[in-house]
TrEMBL record:
Belongs to the paxM FAD-dependent monooxygenase family. This is FAD-binding domain-containing protein. Gene3D superfamilies: FAD/NAD(P)-binding domain. Residues 1-15 have a biased composition (Polar residues). Residues 1-20, 446-481 are annotated as: Disordered. Transmembrane segments: none annotated. It comes from Linnemannia gamsii. Pfam families: FAD_binding_3. Keywords: FAD, Flavoprotein, Oxidoreductase. Residues 466-475 have a biased composition (Basic and acidic residues). PANTHER family: FAD-BINDING DOMAIN-CONTAINING PROTEIN-RELATED, FAD-DEPENDENT MONOOXYGENASE ASQG-RELATED. InterPro entries: FAD-bd, FAD/NAD-bd_sf, FAD_mOase_fung. Residues 28-197 form the FAD-binding domain.
Length: 481
């Protein structure tokens, strides 16, 4: 969802009236119906917090169709960090129904010479398998959980304005919406973030790091085949997802990935690093991201080899309107909130798993707002950033390193890849996996998911509201005697 907001600043209107204080929970307006926005909506539904979701597109993304605003990463949850929250929400079984475990991934050169296997993460230790699925099916699962009256399509936000008592959104169709908090869950090129940063920059409040140009990232071309013939592709019948990473040499600066999902299908993903090849840079400059342009790019890489044959064979089994070319970038922003506005997910430079983790932590802090007042809202949003930022900051170098390891094609990145796969002990790699999977936040206001695996997980801050209510209950019980 691109939001254009250049007519109102996200500040108080300057009213002399005192800010409103009420016992009702805050009303939350969510910009964007991507994974982060939908996950937050589901959590707020469970918490009894009123909310509405506003999506600029005219209708829900059709199942199976990938578009630039719904996908900016390969499909799948390569870490189990969000699965306890799915379990809390009663959605884990449905998620697993269209997923396959990904216990082993094999890396190849573009000549199909084995580089090695990625270190498997044991479910006995981690508690959950890594899983792979098509992202549109996850989007569809989450979308179905939102009551229809709380989902508003064709709602392009053109401005928003804060005052003492709340925030007002204005849409392109001349309608408005009123709430207490605006959540920008509108993707990597967040319009809410853009407007917030522009306002803070004018006030001299924007950190220099947030005004820097975003580094060049990658272009990803991805799709999912129709059902394939198991006689030709026997791997589609395996319980475990057959996952392959093929990394090109200096003359072939691509990485292409394939993995199997239920329904005898194969997901494929071709990643091109910007700034390394003219083909990639030309594709990035092309503003017309339509099937015809995707086909042009696909035709140029049909010959690339996979363990199944050439990529062209998979392209031919994929409907062209279910192919997406997306651009993803890599930057961690310092500014996440101001006043009544807060950002989650790609608006903070994070991907799908982090977007849903953002939603969990934010929902916890929104639940703690009582009574509802501007002061308590601002404190809750500050607490969310403080609670979440260190975890993201710790994960960011590992995520950045992982991308360079698999997708990077500069000389230094090739040397780095050689060192990791040839010299780094497996025990160290396993230690890094355990560190990255120990952080798995859950909703404080729901029964906790059972502990799985032997890994010690990162302790979570308890709910201030629940603690206060427990203390009040104890005082009342003591006074009764």
């Amino acid at each position: 969802m691109n939001i254009i907001t250049d007519t109102h600043a996200p500040t108080s209107s300057g009213s002399d009236l005192p800010p409103l204080v009420t016992d009702r929970p805050p009303r939350v307006l969510i910009a964007g119906a991507g994974l982060g926005g939908l996950f937050l909506g589901i959590l707020l539904e469970k918490a009894g917090i009123p909310y509405e979701i506003f999506e600029r597109s005219a209708e829900p993304r059709p199942l199976g169709k990938l578009t630039p605003y719904t996908s900016n990463k390969p499909e799948g949850l390569h870490t189990p960090n969000i699965l306890p929250a799915f379990e809390q929400l009663g959605l884990l079984d449905e998620l697993m129904a269209f997923s396959k475990p990904a216990r082993i991934a094999t890396l190849y050169t573009d000549k199909l010479k084995v580089i090695g296997d990625a270190v498997p993460a044991s479910a006995d230790v981690i508690g959950y398998d890594r899983i792979l699925f098509t992202r549109p099916e996850l989007h569809d699962l989450l979308f179905k959980q939102i009551p229809s009256e709380k989902m508003h399509m064709s709602k392009k936000i053109v401005s928003f304005e804060h005052d003492n008592d709340g925030i007002t959104l204005a849409f392109g169709d001349n309608s408005t919406a009123r709430g207490d908090i605006l959540v920008g869950a509108d993707g990597a090129h967040s319009g809410v973030r853009k407007h917030l940063h522009e306002f803070l920059d004018k006030q001299g409040l924007l950190p220099n790091s947030d005004s820097m140009k975003i580094p060049r990232g990658y272009i990803s071309l991805l799709g999912t085949t129709d059902a394939l013939d198991p006689a030709k592709y026997p791997g589609v019948l395996k319980e475990d997802s057959e996952s392959y990473y093929v990394i090109g040499d200096k003359d072939t600066p691509y990485t292409w990935v394939t993995f199997c999902v239920p329904g005898n299908r194969i997901c494929w993903n071709v990643i091109i690093q910007l700034g390394v090849t003219d083909v990639a840079d030309e594709q990035f400059k092309t503003s017309d991201w339509v099937p015809q342009q995707n086909k042009k790019m696909m035709d140029s890489i049909r010959h690339l080899k996979t363990p199944y044959g050439i990529l062209g064979d998979l392209f031919d089994a994929t409907q062209l309107d279910r192919v997406s070319k997306v651009y993803f970038e890599d930057m961690l922003f310092d500014t996440w909130n101001h006043g009544r506005t807060v950002l989650i997910g790609d608006g903070n430079g994070a991907g799908a798993v982090n977007a849903m983790q953002d939603a969990v932590i934010l929902a916890n802090h929104l639940y703690d707002i009582k009574p509802t007042s501007f002061e308590n809202i601002e404190q809750a949003l500050n607490d969310y950033k403080e609670d979440r930022f260190d975890a993201i900051k710790d994960q960011y170098p590992l995520s950045h390193m992982s991308a360079k390891l698999i997708y990077g094609h500069t000389l230094l990145e090739r040397i780095f890849r050689y060192i990791i796969f040839n010299w780094m002990p497996k025990s160290i790699q396993m230690k890094q996996i355990e560190m990255s999977t120990a952080y798995r936040p859950q909703a404080n206001f729901l029964p906790q998911a059972p502990r799985r695996g032997t890994l010690e997980t990162t302790p979570q801050k308890p709910s201030k509201r629940i603690q206060n209510e427990d203390e009040e209950a104890k005082k009342r019980a003591a006074a009764a005697f």
